[in-house]
Amino acid sequence: MTGALVEILGMVISTANMLLIVWFIIGLLFAFNVVSPSNQFAFAVHDALSRLFEPVLRPIRRVMPDTGAIDFSPMVFILLLNAVGSLLSRVPY
């Protein structure tokens, strides 16, 4: 039972990492005008992922110093997710 739960949590962490990277890349594409925000599909994906990640990233942003235009909170969140995944991988079955 514990092994299955650890594997499921590992998959959730991996999925969250991938979705966070996709969200970040779409945001960069919007910022550098590679993709127009009027593209409905890209905007819908970015908006959905923003709604998913903003509640988690907001507390991280409050703790971190303001770095201007660069937002390091997604990177911090990915590092936290990887740390949790590493700890979970060491849980004995």
Explain the overall architecture.
There is one protein chain. The protein is mostly helical. The chain has one domain. It contains 3 helices and no strands. The longest helix is centred in the N-terminal third of the chain and has 30 residues. The radius of gyration is 16 Å and the shape is globular. The model has no long low-confidence stretch (mean pLDDT 91).
Task: Supply the helix-strand structural class.
Answer: mainly alpha
* Oligomerization category of the chains in this entry: single chain
Distance between the termini: 8 Å
Unreliable stretches? none
Instruction: Name the overall outline.
Output: globular
Number of domains: 1
Rg = 16 Å
SSE string: HHH
Helical amount: over 70%
Keywords: Membrane, Transmembrane, Transmembrane helix
Protein name: YggT family protein
Transmembrane segments: 12-32, 68-88
Give a quick summary of the entry.
Keywords: Membrane, Transmembrane, Transmembrane helix. This is YggT family protein. The chain is mainly α and 93 residues long.
Entry keywords:
CCB3/YggT; mainly alpha; transmembrane; 93 residues; transmembrane helix; 3 helices
List the helices and strands and how they pair.
Layout: H1 2-31, H2 40-63, H3 73-89
Helix pairs in contact: 1-2, 1-3, 2-3
